[in-house]
């Protein structure tokens, strides 16, 4: 199957780029041929978005809403096709693929509702004066999406930016471009005006950097690694350009002594192994209070061994393939380093092809690479804490601050501790892996800048303008 670029409302072949083989990570076979953009296509896409944005910004909210609802209907009607793309292109297991496809439907519908809720403010500042603060779209927004949730995390940017009145140029991850094609198909079928959304797969150098550095692009929304995000921030800052960055995480789960052990095992297992651990908010550090430590290690290891590794299309598969084999070598080196410094490998640590076995280490300490570094695989570390305060200290001993979990039956203590935990999201008695279309999703520290979801996305994708109206003669000092 061959997939084209989508620019200015039309499907087209690349002229200055190349046609690239999109590989299935399960077996390395060629899944699709995809047209990658070059400099000419980047220019064409940005020009189309720049030309269309004023008209789109002035489009009535009801019309924007109707288009997004129609796009959501298309996604629902084609949910099997979309889930199939996610399984074959990104290695998503059956359950994850259908979850993501269903979430995409919800995002279209949630964003449709925000079209009528781009709220401003009126203040009474002085006699005879109306003081208004309005929210206005930036214009052209560029989105750079990751491979792990290629549909959901791209769409979170696209739909809310459009709802706020912006136009959009999307660069999907190079490893998962066809997921971006699904977004273009949905919006095209819904009758979105030409130029409002443009899809240009390509490399970071050929496409991503050009989008960030183009002065017509007024905002960049990115999800990906912290290293790449910092580079985007540096480039965007030269132009004083707005950016939103959702980056890495080394997410902790704190288990206190009063919580049910079996429930803790299930929560930790889902958080650690969902989508092979290839999620920025996966649970990669299990910080367990000392009285439960040994028993938790035993039960969690047994639970990890039950995870089925295999064909993403099988309904009972939990662990599918990693997106690329190079990640296996990175994980191997982290495990070797940890074991050489005293960690104990309880299970896993092996792989066949891109399939990495669910892996559990215990007695992990801060002098080991795996304590701080992202693994982006089905690997988690169990860390002993003396008490609740020590657990919070270990939680915060990291450059990242995306998601976190706190498991305890003492909700009063939980609320107090949640304020001490350095993370953008704290989930009490649930997994670090949690999302919703309308919440304020995002991190602190090296995990990012900005928030995504519902009205919080509308805030991100708009800028404020102060307007005053003097309806009686102004009283001036001279």
TrEMBL record:
One of its GO terms (molecular function) is salicylaldehyde dehydrogenase (NAD+) activity. PROSITE patterns: ALDEHYDE_DEHYDR_CYS, ALDEHYDE_DEHYDR_GLU. Keywords: Aromatic hydrocarbons catabolism, NAD, Oxidoreductase. Its EC number is 1.2.1.65. The keyword Oxidoreductase applies. It is an enzyme of class 1 (oxidoreductase). The active site is at 246. Pathway: Aromatic compound metabolism; naphthalene degradation. It catalyses: salicylaldehyde + NAD(+) + H2O = salicylate + NADH + 2 H(+). Pfam families: Aldedh. Residues 11-467 form the Aldehyde dehydrogenase domain. Belongs to the aldehyde dehydrogenase family. This is Salicylaldehyde dehydrogenase. It comes from [Clostridium] asparagiforme DSM 15981. The lineage of its organism: Bacteria, Bacillati, Bacillota, Clostridia, Lachnospirales.
